[in-house]
Amino acid sequence: MYELESKIELLKNFVAGKSVLIVGNSESIFGLGLGDKIDSFDVVVRMNLGRVKKPFQQGTRTDVLFTSVPKLSESDIVSWFDPKWVVWATSKRDRVPEFRNINDRLIYHPMSYWEELYETQAPSRPSTGLIAINFFSNHCACASVSYIGFDFFETDTFYHKKRFGLLRKKLKTPRPHDGDSEKKFISDLEYRGKLFRLS
C-alpha cells in the first residue's frame, strides 16, 4: 500500500511544468464544442465513469484517470480511457478493484492529502473531482491547472443518463458531497490564481 501511495511522486514529475486540464462529468460540458481545446492541453484528466462519448464536446484524450468507483473494471479503464496513470482517489482502500494488468500505472492518492481536504468539506466527503483539482493545484508544480465540466451538482452527472449507456437510471441515493462548499473551495483557488476555468 505504501508503495502505491509513494508512486504519487512519479505523477508529480509527469505533470511538472505542464498545462493540466481536469474534465468534469456534469451535463454542462455538452453544448460548448470545446473538444479540440480540451485536447490542446499537455495533460488531460478524467474521472470515474466519464468516458468520452462525444469527442466534439469532450475531447478524446485521457492521460490521467482519477477514480473512486469499485465497479469500474480494469478492462473498462483500458478500453474506455487507456490512461498513462490511474489514481485511486478515495480514502476507502478496501474498495479498490483488482488491477493486475495495470498495476504499474496504479497510484493511491495520499491519505494525508485526502484528510486535509476532508477538513475543508466535513461532514461531507470531497468529490473525486475536487480531490483531483486539489491535488494538481496544491500539490504539484504544473505550469497551469484548468477545469471544465463542473457546475457543483446544478445539473446531473452525464453518465447517470440512460442515453449514454453507462448507467441504467439515475442514482436514488443522496449525494455525499456539498456543492456549495466545493464551489467555495474552487473559487478560492481561482482567486489566488492557482486554477482557471476553461470557457
Automatic annotation (TrEMBL):
One of its GO terms (molecular function) is sialyltransferase activity. It is found in: Endomembrane system; Membrane. It is a single-pass membrane protein. Keywords: Glycoprotein, Glycosyltransferase, Membrane, Transferase, Transmembrane, Transmembrane helix. GO terms for cellular component: endomembrane system; membrane. InterPro entries: Glyco_trans_29, GT29-like_sf. Gene3D superfamilies: Glycosyl transferase family 29 (3.90.1480.20). Pfam families: Glyco_transf_29. Coiled coil: none annotated. This is Uncharacterized protein.
